[in-house]
């Protein structure tokens, strides 16, 4: 059971202005939220809203300008052994299945490394554990897949490998950064359902970052709407989508294609 | 998009669009697709020259043995004739091949090692180290190569092979370092590198395991280029009398040929062979370089005639002919 | 004639080592002023079809059969595959224009918008004077909802949505009777996407051109198109009026595709958050598919994968 708190985090980037002046770009503006075991929080926003920056900070790829990230009561460490342990607890599934796997290495290698690094397997048990992982993300036959290279797999298969890799260190918090936006439409739900299933099995706290309001509605327990670095609205999915308070959220909800509404309108127009 | 990406087409026999692309082919064929004849021709030539330089010195006459038959044309006794002092040119050529190749390879290896340190490692580490290494590479790059080599060489008393190789290395690593730096900059921001960091990998491992393998094709191309440059540079130095002393190299043969007035006296068998060898090796290395370029950059492949194989062209022609008759029928 | 385009038995192959049948005997008609949505996932051949109609295919793609007939409003029927180069150039953009995928990045970064719009006129209406060209360019921009003052801007000074509008303006420049749009809104934010769609609809209502709108986003097509054609592995598996197709899909694949889009405002929990087994490995059997049908729940619109 783990809790990851994001407390009043601000992230500024230094920007060189057109005339050589130095400005500040506030990518994340005083954002707070909590990730709890067994619950999914959806972070919804368009490009430039700051959601990817939040993901990078949660993974210690970037440092907050101010504010803190607290895992189970302890401030997230920045180096050394403590950082390695943090990394085994907090993992990420990247957006682009084509870029998140090194084309040079086999699938087995991608999965074996985190297993060995975090002591979840020894050299003699690692092959078996790799096959186990592949089975959990429903990729088979495992021995065959482990020997292949990324370009021999389809986008959906690669994303499952990325999920397996994220699960290898047995994390407690999983960050999914637009995990299905680059996949074919008909396999998106399969991957999202897989994530949901794994969350249930492992009691993970999941942060689901997306721009797709519809999937956020169905796969999360809480939605945070982000606009220009700030959280403009938060609440349960039904509240946020069916009853949006903030004008930006209203705009988002209205702009998303809603076939049912459209059909109802057309029927009414014909009547 | 201006070209249609074949990789995006689904196998029509698969249930949905989401099928494994090219799963049937062996992994290696997909990583190195479409190896053109250039590669084999180039590799073959290099192998032949290397064999000549490695094996023949054991079977030829003593290249330094002087005899009475000065400046004689090729004959049964001396396959490529003799020098001014009656030394066997063919034997000299064999030893010279070995010497030049040694310098070429030595320079290539050391230059690449330096390029990796200053280009790849420095760039990945980032920050001040990156800036410093980059500045250093750029400064060395700007210094003209051959003149610098001449100056250093003229100060060095003992011109052994390794020393000359070192002199040439100083001037040849910087260009490669810049190229590798550009590639590393692009690789550094790839998702799979970030994924490795998130996994908790150590920096040195990330550089060795994630970045270097993807730098390999360009590194190979830069290595070949460095070898060509080294051999030419050595020939240049030798021709000026600043080259390796005590060992035969192609450049030193040319130097002695020049001193012995071979051109004026029409003793073509003395200077043509070493010159020809330099040209052949340069050609072979360039061919391999082009082939590697085509492997790295698939777009080049389609644009050269060799890229579209004969079989494909026939198939294309047949398809177009069939389309022509079909249209004729419905028109 | 009320039909502007007839495609009959159209086929395209890629003549490579193992020939790929990218488009297989596709037939459909496009009515004047109609918006036809062409839906399908990556690799289904929709882009190849669009390029084929416009004769933009490059080797190794080869048209292996079928007819494409453009019914010109000025009377003649034009057999597209038979146009020679000169006629093709006159035809393109004048009667049929195209908005490509990633069009926002197709603008020349070093010239102004005005110069690029003028370029279209210089090529196709060489007898126009400069003043006429500039005037028409300004009017075009206003038509797509961009202020005339933006003529002097460079592409990087415009937002993604504006650049897309400029591309649509360029496609409209010569008043074509038909446009092919390949994923014109995919890279845009949802809010901007909605505006662009509105714009396209409004322009169609005003100017009366027909549109083939290619995308993978099926709910989006319902918003904008009159009819929808679903494509898979080179074939059109279903084609029909959009509302009808949405509420009453006939083909299995259409149902599957529709089921991939969870409803925004419908019942929550329409997808039970349980694992759906999808053995995605190449030759692995879908052995446990019996198991997953039990756990995944059908949505209000169609069966899930």
Tell me what you see in this structure.
The complex is a heterotrimer of chains A (271), B (331) and C (305). Chain A has a single domain (3-257), classed as P-loop containing nucleotide triphosphate hydrolases (Rossmann fold, 3-Layer(aba) Sandwich). Helix content of chain A is 41%, strand content 25%. Chain A is built from eleven helices and ten strands. Chain A has helices at 51-58, 80-89, 107-117, 126-136, 142-147, 155-167, 185-202, 213-219, 237-242, 247-255, 259-270; strands at 3-16, 22-36, 40-44, 66-71, 74-75, 90-93, 173-177, 205-210, 222-227, 230-235. A six-stranded mixed sheet of chain A has the order 6-7-8-3-9-10, with helices on both faces. In chain A, a hairpin with a 5-residue loop joins strand 1 (3-16) and strand 2. The model of chain A has no long low-confidence stretch (mean pLDDT 88). Chain B has one domain (34-322): MetI-like (MetI-like fold), CATH 1.10.3720. In chain B, 69% of the residues lie in helices and 0% in strands. Chain B has helices spanning 27-31, 37-55, 89-125, 127-142, 145-155, 161-188, 191-199, 203-239, 250-259, 268-296, 298-303, 310-330. Chain B is globular, with a radius of gyration of 26 Å. Chain B starts with 26 loop residues before the first helix and ends with a helix. Chain C has a domain at 1-95 and 178-184 and 210-261: 3-Layer(aba) Sandwich (Rossmann fold). Helices cover 33% and strands 23% of the residues of chain C. Chain C has ten helices and ten strands. In chain C, helix 3 packs across helix 4 (130-143) and helix 5 (160-172) packs parallel to helix 6. Chain C starts with a strand and ends in a 10-residue tail after the last helix. Residues 272-305 of chain C have low confidence and may be disordered. The chains are: A alpha/beta (271), B mainly alpha (331), C alpha/beta (305). Chains A and C meet through helix 6, helix 7, helix 8, helix 9 and helix 10 of A and helix 6, helix 7, helix 8 and helix 9 of C.
Which structural category fits the helices and strands of chain C? alpha/beta
Number of strands of chain B: 0
Determine the fraction of residues in helical runs of chain C and give it as a percent range.
25-40%
Biggest β-sheet of chain B: count, sense, barrel? none
- Architecture of chain B, according to CATH? Orthogonal Bundle
Rounded mean pLDDT score of chain C = 81
Kindly report the oligomeric state of this protein.
Answer: heterotrimer
Number of strands of chain C: 10
Low-confidence stretches of chain B: 1-31, 325-331
Side-by-side strand order of the widest sheet of chain C = 6-7-8-3-9-10
C-alpha Rg of chain C, in Å? 21 Å
Largest sheet of chain C: 6 strands, mixed
How many domains of chain B, as an integer? 1
**CA-CA gap between termini of chain C:** 42 Å
């Amino acid at each position: 059971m783990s809790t990851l708190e994001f407390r009043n985090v601000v992230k500024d980037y230094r920007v060189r202005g057109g005339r050589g002046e130095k400005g500040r770009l506030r990518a994340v503006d005083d954002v707070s939220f909590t990730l709890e075991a067994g619950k999914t929080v959806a972070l919804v926003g368009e490009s430039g809203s700051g959601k990817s920056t939040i993901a990078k900070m949660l993974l210690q790829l970037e440092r907050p300008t101010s504010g803190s990230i607290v895992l189970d009561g302890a401030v997230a460490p920045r180096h050394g052994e403590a950082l390695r342990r943090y990394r085994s607890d907090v993992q990420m599934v990247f957006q682009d299945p084509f870029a998140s796997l090194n084309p040079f290495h086999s699938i087995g290698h991608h999965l074996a490394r985190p297993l060995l690094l975090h002591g979840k397997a020894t050299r003699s048990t690692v092959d078996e554990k790799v096959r186990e992982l592949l089975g959990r993300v429903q990729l088979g036959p495992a021995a065959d897949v482990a020997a292949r290279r990324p370009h021999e797999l389809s986008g959906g298969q690669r994303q499952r490998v990325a999920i397996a890799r994220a699960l290898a260190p047995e994390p407690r918090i999983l960050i999914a950064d637009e995990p299905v936006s680059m996949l074919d439409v008909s396999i998106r739900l399969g991957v999202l359902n897989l994530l949901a299933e794994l969350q249930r099995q492992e009691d993970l706290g999941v942060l689901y970052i997306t721009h797709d309001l519809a999937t956020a509605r169905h796969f999360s327990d809480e939605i945070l709407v982000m606009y220009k670095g700030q959280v403009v609205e938060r609440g349960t999915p039904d509240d946020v989508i069916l009853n949006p308070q903030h004008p930006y959220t209203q705009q988002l909800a209205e702009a998303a294609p809603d076939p049912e509404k459209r059909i109802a309108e057309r029927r009414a127009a014909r009547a | 998009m201006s070209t249609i990406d074949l990789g995006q087409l689904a196998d029509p026999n698969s249930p949905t669009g989401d099928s494994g692309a090219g799963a049937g082919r062996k992994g290696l064929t997909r990583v190195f697709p479409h190896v053109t004849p250039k590669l084999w021709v180039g590799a073959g030539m290099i192998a032949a020259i290397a064999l000549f330089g490695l094996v023949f010195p054991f079977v030829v006459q003593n290249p330094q043995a002087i005899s009475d038959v000065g400046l004689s044309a090729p004959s049964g006794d001396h396959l490529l004739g003799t020098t001014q002092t009656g030394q066997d040119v063919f034997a000299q050529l064999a030893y010279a091949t070995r010497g030049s190749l040694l310098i070429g390879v030595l320079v290539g290896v050391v230059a690449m090692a330096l390029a990796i340190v200053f280009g790849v490692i420095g760039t990945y580490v980032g920050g001040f180290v990156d800036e410093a290494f980059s500045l250093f590479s750029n400064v060395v790059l700007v210094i003209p190569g051959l003149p610098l080599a001449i100056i250093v060489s003229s100060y060095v008393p003992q011109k052994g092979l390794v020393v000359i190789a070192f002199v040439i290395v100083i001037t040849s690593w910087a260009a490669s370092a810049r190229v590798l730096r550009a590639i590393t900059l692009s690789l550094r921001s790839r998702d799979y590198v970030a994924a490795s960091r998130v996994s908790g990998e150590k920096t040195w491992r990330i550089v060795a395991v994630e970045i270097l393998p993807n730098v390999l094709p360009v590194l190979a191309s830069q290595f070949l280029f460095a070898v060509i440059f080294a051999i030419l540079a050595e020939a240049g130095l030798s021709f000026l009398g600043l080259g390796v002393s005590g060992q035969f190299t192609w450049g030193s043969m040319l130097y002695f040929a020049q001193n012995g007035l071979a051109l004026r006296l029409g003793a073509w068998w003395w200077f043509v062979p070493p010159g020809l060898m330099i040209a052949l090796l340069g050609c072979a290395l360039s061919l391999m370089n082009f082939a590697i370029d085509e492997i790295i950059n698939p777009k080049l492949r389609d644009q050269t005639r060799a890229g579209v194989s004969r079989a494909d062209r026939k198939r294309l022609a047949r398809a177009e002919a069939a389309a022509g008759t079909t249209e004729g029928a419905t028109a | 004639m009320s039909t502007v385009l007839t495609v009959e038995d159209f086929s395209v192959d890629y003549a490579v080592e193992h020939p790929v049948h990218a488009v297989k005997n596709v037939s459909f008609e496009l009515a004047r002023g109609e918006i036809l949505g062409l839906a399908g996932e990556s690799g289904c051949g929709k882009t190849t079809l669009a390029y084929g109609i416009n004769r933009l295919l490059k080797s190794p793609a080869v048209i292996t059969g079928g007819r494409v007939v453009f019914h010109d409003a000025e009377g003649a029927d034009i057999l597209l595959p038979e146009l020679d180069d000169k006629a093709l150039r006159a035809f393109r953009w004048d009667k049929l224009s195209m908005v490509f995928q990633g069009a926002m990045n197709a603008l020349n970064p070093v010239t102004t918008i005005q110069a690029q719009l003028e370029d279209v006129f210089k090529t196709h209406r060489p007898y126009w004077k400069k003043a006429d060209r500039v005037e028409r360019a300004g009017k075009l921009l206003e038509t797509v909802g961009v202020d005339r003052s933006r003529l002097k801007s460079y592409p990087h000074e415009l937002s993604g949505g504006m650049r897309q509008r400029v591309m649509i303006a360029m496609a409209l420049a010569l008043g074509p009777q038909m446009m092919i749009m390949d994923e014109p809104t995919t890279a845009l934010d949802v809010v901007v996407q909605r505006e662009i769609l509105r714009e396209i609809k409004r322009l169609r209502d005003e100017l009366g051109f027909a549109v083939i709108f290619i995308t993978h986003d099926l709910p989006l097509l319902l918003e904008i198109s009159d009819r929808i054609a679903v494509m898979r592995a080179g074939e059109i598996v279903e084609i029909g009026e959009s509302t009808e197709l949405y509420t009453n899909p006939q083909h299995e694949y259409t149902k599957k595709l529709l089921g991939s889009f969870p409803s925004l405002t419908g019942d929550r929990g329409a997808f039970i958050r349980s694992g759906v087994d999808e053995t995605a490995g190449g030759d692995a059997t879908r052995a446990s598919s019996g198991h997953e049908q039990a756990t995944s729940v059908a949505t209000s619109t169609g069966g899930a994968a």
